[in-house]
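Troubleshooting entry. Yesterday's outputs looked truncated, so today I'm pasting the complete records for two proteins to confirm everything comes through intact. If either block looks cut off, that's the bug. Protein one:
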Amino acid sequence: MNITIANRKYKNLCVRCGISKKSDDLTYCYDCLYKLFKKRNQYPLTLIQEEIKKKIKYRMIDNNYLREEYMDRICSKIIVNKTNHCWEWHGSLCRQYGCLYCFSKQYRAHRFFYMLYVNNFIPDDKYILHKCDNPKCCNPQHLFLGTQHDNISDMYNKHRQPDVKGINNGRSILTEKDALDIRQSVYKYSELAKQYHVSKSTIQRIKSYETWRHI
């Protein structure tokens, strides 16, 4: 709806939508005022999120200053788990880890929060590891700096390594039944290799329990 300035002045219309303002003291109608207020405060924070925001130690990320509205935006995506006290990221995910864009660059959420609260510089050869084993957690008290070796050692110490035995191995040709049949077979290695489309050395390793030791 196109309304001229004269019409707005004399007919008491909202300058945004052209609907009656119902008051000479207002520039906008009540509906437009509500929409504008909601837009300016599009990331309302809970009390816990406000506390998280207040504890931020660094505002410079990669030599760029974080504006107040951006801090509201990222803090609004944090929900605190009352059971384990994890600050869980409820925004975009990348391989189970939170991710966000800042200054035309993608960051992992837990690395970003580590830079905000602990140290705003992370060496290229370092990783940010989780004490809580929760990929979505951004709580700086649950994060620590380490190397790739530390990351792998932590995974094995907590028994989180993937199971790639037997048929769970993507390169496996045989099944568990095939391996058991090969061990019990009395045929020559060459005949078994031809039957199961594998090499003779594969047959030998199965029979000597070098492979498929879990069955």
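Protein two, checking that the full record survives here as well:
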Amino acid sequence: MAALADSGLEPGGKNIIVDYQNAQGDAANLSTIGDRFLAKQVDLILAIATPAAQSVAAKTGTIPILGTAVTDYVSARLVFSNENPGTNVSGTSDLNPHRGADLPIEAVGPPTPKRWGAVVHFQRR
């Protein structure tokens, strides 16, 4: 959130609203969170982890989705290829060592989305 503020965005609702949700490692929660984001008509979805990206991508082909902590977007069936994604999904890979697997982000969404949905699929232990 500090990086958003540093770039001039104010996550407190003044010029950006971020709805941060954690599915707690539960696929049913992912589905519910995706439905929530669709109902709220978010402008952008940040999906952290492959299951989160797959779940929201299955629900919308129009809302831009940025993924992170996704190893292989092609194998996860989120894009057609890294060079030409062909979907509403983009993001960065956690493949190590990094081999240039990041997708072109400029192809996804409006330049300054106002309503963001952020979903993670981490289970706290």
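Both blocks look complete. Sanity check on protein two: Residues 102 and 110 are 19 Å apart (CA to CA).
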